[in-house]
Specification:
The complex is a heterodimer of chains A (about 650) and B (about 325).
Chain A: H1 2-19, H2 24-32, H3 34-39, H4 44-72, H5 83-118, H6 126-148, H7 173-201, H8 214-246, H9 260-293, H10 300-313, H11 329-357, H12 366-388, H13 391-397, H14 401-431, H15 437-463, H16 480-509, H17 548-554, E1 569-571, H18 577-593, H19 597-615, E2 622-624, H20 626-637
Antiparallel strand pairs in A: 1-2
Helix pairs in contact in A: 1-19, 4-5, 4-6, 4-16, 5-6, 5-7, 5-9, 5-14, 6-7, 6-18, 7-8, 7-18, 8-9, 8-10, 9-11, 9-12, 9-14, 10-11, 11-12, 12-14, 12-15, 14-15, 15-16, 18-19
Chain B: H1 17-50, H2 68-96, E1 107-114, E2 117-122, E3 127-130, E4 132-136, E5 141-147, E6 152-156, E7 160-165, E8 171-175, E9 181-187, E10 199-205, H3 207-218, H4 227-239, E11 269-270, E12 274-275, H5 278-286, H6 288-291, H7 305-315
Parallel strand pairs in B: 1-5, 4-10
Antiparallel strand pairs in B: 1-2, 2-3, 5-8, 6-7, 6-9, 9-10, 11-12
The chains are: A mainly alpha (about 650), B alpha+beta (about 325).
Bound molecules: heme C and copper (II) ion.
Amino acid sequence: MATLVTIIVFILFLSAILTGGYNKELMDRFRSHWLWDWITTVDHKKIGIMYGIGGGFFFILGGIEALLIRTQLFYPNNDFIVGRAFNELLTMHGTTMIFFVAMPLLFALMNMIVPLQIGARDVAFPFLNAMGLWFFIAGGILMNLSWLFGNAPDAGWTNYVPIAANEYSAGTGIDYYVLGLQISGFGTLMSGINFLATIINMRTEGMSFLRMPLFTWTSFISSALILFGFPPLTAGLFLIMFERLFGANFFDVAAGGNPIIWEHLFWIFGHPEVYIVVLPAFGIMSEVISTFSKKRLFGYTSMVFATILIGFLGFMVWAHHMFTVGMGPVANSIFAIATMTIAVPTGIKVFNWLFTMWGGKIRFTTAMLYAVGFIPTFVMGGVTGVMLSTPPGDYQYHDSYFVVAHFHYVLIGGTVFGILAGFYYWWPKIFGYKLNEKLGKWNFWLFFIGFHLTFLIQHFIGLFGMPRRVFTYQPEDGLTLINQISTVGAYMMAVATILFVVNVIYSYRHRVPVGNDPWDGRTLEWSIPSPAPFYNFAQLPKVRALDAFWHEKMKGNKEMEPAEPLGPIHMPSNNHLPIVIVLGFFISGLGFVFRSNEVGALGLIFAFLMMFVRSFEKDHGYHVETDEVEKVEKGVKA
Amino acid sequence: MTGCEEPDRTVFSPKGEAGEGSLDVIMLSIYIMTFVVAVVLAIFIYVLIRYRQKPGDNSIPKQVEGSMKLEMLWTVIPIILLAILAVPTLTHTFSLAEEAPKDEDPLRVKVTAHQYWWEFEYPDLGIKTAQQLHIPTDEKVYLELTSDDVIHAFWVPELAGKQDLNPGSTNKMWIDADEPGTYEGRCAELCGAGHALMNFQVVAQEKEDFDKWVEKRKNPSSEPKTAEQKAGKEVFTQNCMSCHAIDGTQMKTKGEKAPNLTGFAERNKIAGLLENNDENLEKWMKHPEQVKPGTYMPSFDFLSDEDMDNLKAYLQSLE
Ligand code: HEC
Ligand SMILES: [Cu+2]
């Protein structure tokens, strides 16, 4: 019965959309609303902003989950949140932070900045770009709906089988994980391909590969890692989906399956994933450090090759997450040595950053503080990484709080510090005003101190025998005080995060417009007005050196030399199909979660139908006429 | 930190060769890494102090492209450091994976993990126990690890690093203790709701004490002696036998779904977790779910006080 109703509602919905039905006036009202403009946008800057809002929202959710976890661990045998509920929290915290915070916030910055840095007017596939955004939002919402309907996934972000199988995780929790990640994964893959195409094809005249800013470079490599890293995850998720929903057997030992297959698939994706989220942060740091030291990046070429090498080696080392699985000493040794080698290119980067500052004129803006704070923090995460690469050591560290400490040093000390530095640095370019520096410094110091308070001590919690993912410990374990210190640190980070939100609001209220180049920048994005006009460059610039804009400034030029005469600019037009297509996938995902295969199938059919519609759409974009460009340019100059 | 905050199972105080093997590598890596961090920090702090922009100084620093020499330096030195670390890493990786020698007759224990408890079987001695693994000191004990349900991991920080227990396959490791004592162990792989409390102990004894223990396990005293205990055994046969086995009695049970309770009175913990006394035993039997979320042991709060007392008397007589 329920299915029948759903199907009918669905068909009505479908025909309404297809016929453009409803009431014409209502549609017009919709269309002229500013929200409609955002929902249908294909402008990379707006998409970037929406990635930022989405990622920020999930950051707060994931942060609350972290606080609940740390609160439960405040004293031994606390009964605040125990058992399955605790497992749900830690699963959702990890999954949210990786897939719905780190990835989208980096996509936010990549979207906002990469086209500007290479002198492009948009990305290669603006339509796909919008779709990637909506896939991320749909996946994130789907996954978090699990809190409202029944139970959340509870098998850890690694979702190992058999605990993720129906038999051991009753209910639909894991289904939300599988379908939520599958959906957001489509988006990630699309965005990855899009950035590869953009960076390869849309560079302006003179912007050769070895003149690309480091952030663009790292985004490029990161996108390549997405291209090769996400398919194994997709495949693995399909296997689990078929096992859970349609009774297939891939992992069930009793039926001849093997649970270790999932571990391999997951980590073949999972290890590159670490580099996917940390490489762009390296890029941001390189830009920020170079700008605020007023020096060109030391060893630019070796930085580029180190990035490529890290990306390449990133695929060779996944099994170091599995030293205790029982692969035998030979396999363990090979993966140990492979892992150690990654330390070399990473070390090169660290020293290059240090020597970029050496001999420079360092300005301690908030962005620079984050970049500077990042160096020792990330080095700590790096050296514990080398420690973890030794199997005999790893037998002790593995699945203990030592590992928790290690990856938070890398993911917060690397990725989150990078993202925050990036926001402070590029905020004026996107919004036309700076974030408040005074609040920013408070934000940095609280976050920095809170972070080390939380995680430095967790190395010892692990070495003193506390496994990760446990909801409690015993009073006689002697772990109480150190856990309490860690919890206090976590609350400090929460205060720092609130301060960041306050800063965003405060800075908006008290905004002071800035010019093109508020930081004395070096790269192309600083040569155009802030905020960047919707067409980015009135005339595409001609690049004559690394640090193109700095090069011109040093020659006494105020602007880039144009590579083309002023003329009409071709722009892609807005489109509502991205969100509509994704809606189909979302409905399908929800249908499968509720084990209603009809709805699941209908959602897919709807999505494919909409793709079909898109294929026949005549979408040639539109032109911005020369006089309008001139008007806009004058407007910002005045 | 005060005395009560002594951690009770750190990897820094190994009580056996396997733990020492791991610690060797850990310490070497800590030394090397401390050196690396120190070098970075030294340059870092120097740079931050020395090259701050002074107020009013608007000059533009020299734009340096790089330096081949320096870059070679920080490529080669890390490689050397890593090579130094790699040597003991590899030797210990292999020595920790050593298998039971074929010609001798070492002690072997089959460890089977269940959602949230541990089963220890000595195939060569014909005994089975649970939650507490007894081993003789100064002798390598070879473990064969497997799981009955999901993936677990066996971790006794003071004795050795961890090893996963996978359903459907067997992993091997060895442990040894050079001092008698009780060492705390933990399940280290997320295995469900009760994961945090899947604790166990390794009891290391001098060889002769261990042999005595083995003798006792082979000839357990499981028959009730007093009237109370007899009544308790009745209650047990009616309620518990479908899951639990007790050797050395006439009970017909395979009892493979739950810990073997032979010699229960000698265990110092209940369910690997609570101190073994009457009060806790009653708490466990009445509300196991409150002690260990997700456990498969059902609640027996419906038993009369008398039955409960008899049951406790019987269980605490099992030696
Ligand atoms: C449905 C099967 C089942 C039944 C019936 C059952 N138990 Fe259990 N029992 C278990 C399981 C499973 C455990 C292991 C719990 C854990 O540690 O997670 C256990 C653990 C125990 C322990 C702790 C064992 C140890 O080695 O520390 C005791 C004592 C115990 N049960 C007593 C009883 C008694 C007495 C009864 C009957 C009144 C009973 N059980 C009935 C399944 C059962
Ligand atoms: Cu376990």
